[in-house]
Design brief:
alpha/beta, Rossmann fold, 2 domains, 10 helices, 15 strands, globular, binds adenosine-5'-triphosphate, ATP hydrolysis activity, ATP-binding, P-loop_NTPase, ABC transporter family protein
Length: 321
């Protein structure tokens, strides 16, 4: 859905992006992460066709963003980190203005406003002026403006900053809903736990370079998918690893006489049967838990690998250099 190759961007006296190449799958939600100044905003602005890079190519849904920016704009929604709303306009007028700016025909605008207001739970606010709205509601109006034309790609720069936990949670629900409708999302944030809730991929930037782009390990729910499990015993047992190693569905990854980390292939019934066997064999099992790697762990691992001077290879679900 988004293809970038050899993207290089310079501010006067400063190279912000170095030869970025990337392919983002349709329907994915990519968490764009990186330290301050890594180039996240610059990358989003380039994809949105708001900046002209020094070199490289960008296409969205097959449309060349640099050659045909106006047509490409119609395919995208962009929420900047510092967005503005017209204070004196009502929510309905803001949405109408955005719809007209995106070139929606006048006859289609009332329905687009109704649909967007419904998606963002703003229906009862349509006649309120923006200066009377809370921060969370203003954020929702700004997102509404970005999605009023049902874009294929939505770019959101720090969309949850300044929101309370409840508003963040409802935003996460909205992003999942947009993804379910087939939209492709690229979302930047420094709060990785929040991105974790809905992201399918991670794009880590550092000093204008792609550190890593990869699919995140989420429980696919498929019975044959391998899960990372950890078993912890109440007291050490030298036979723990030997017993696990004898199981054909287990691949041990680490641990000691009290714990074992392993990959398990089987459904919940097979997992329950394994647990029963281990207890039956005299192991004092205190817990058996799922060890999903979260976004924070993925990001920190990627940074550590970079700092150790190693190179990452493109991962499943996308590619990057
Ligand atoms: N207008 C500008 N002129 C010169 N340099 C700039 C300009 N805007 C950004 N930069 C520099 O380009 C680099 C990338 O900035 P960018 O805003 O894309 O990073 P970011 O990852 O979004 O950072 P943050 O997390 O702090 O928002 C930084 O070193 C920044 O100082």
């Amino acid at each position: 859905m988004i293809k970038i190759s050899g993207l290089t961007f310079d501010y006067p006296g400063h190279r912000a992006l170095h030869q970025v190449s990337l392919q983002v799958e349709q329907g994915s939600v990519t968490a764009l992460v990186g330290s301050n100044g890594a180039g996240k905003t610059t990358l989003m602005r380039c994809i949105a066709g708001l900046e002209t890079p020094l070199a490289g190519a960008i296409s969205v849904a097959g449309m060349d963003v640099l050659e045909r920016p106006r047509e490409a704009h119609r395919l995208m929604g962009y929420l900047s980190d510092f967005y503005g709303l017209y204070q004196a306009l009502t929510v309905s007028q803001c949405l109408e203005y955005a719809a007209a700016a995106q070139g929606l025909p006048a006859v289609a605008i009332p329905q687009a406003i109704r649909t967007t207001a419904q998606q963002l739970a703003l229906t009862d606010r349509l006649q309120q002026t923006c200066d009377k709205l809370s921060r969370g509601l203003r954020q929702r109006v700004a997102i509404g403006q970005a999605i009023i034309h049902a874009p294929k790609v939505l770019l959101l720069d720090e969309p949850a900053s300044g929101l309370d936990p409840e508003a963040r949670s409802s935003l996460a629900g909205l992003f999942r809903q947009l993804q379910a409708s087939g939209m492709t999302l690229l979302v930047s944030s420094h709060i990785l736990a929040e991105l974790d809730e809905y992201s399918t991929h991670m794009l880590a930037l550092r000093d204008g370079r792609v550190l890593e782009y990869r699919a995140l390990k989420h429980d696919s729910g498929h019975p044959s998918a391998r899960k990372s499990l950890r078993i912890v015993l109440a007291q050490a047992n030298a036979g723990l690893h030997a017993q696990l190693a004898a199981e054909p569905t287990v691949q041990i990854e680490g641990g000691d006489e009290r714990t074992a980390d392993f990959l398990f292939s089987g459904d919940e019934h097979a997992q329950a049967a394994l647990l029963a066997r281990l207890i039956g064999n005299g192991l004092a099992v205190a817990s058996l838990s799922d060890q999903k790697e979260n976004l924070q762990q993925s990001y920190l691992r990627s940074v550590a690998t970079y700092e150790n001077g190693q190179q990452h290879l493109p991962a499943t679900g996308g590619s990057a250099t």
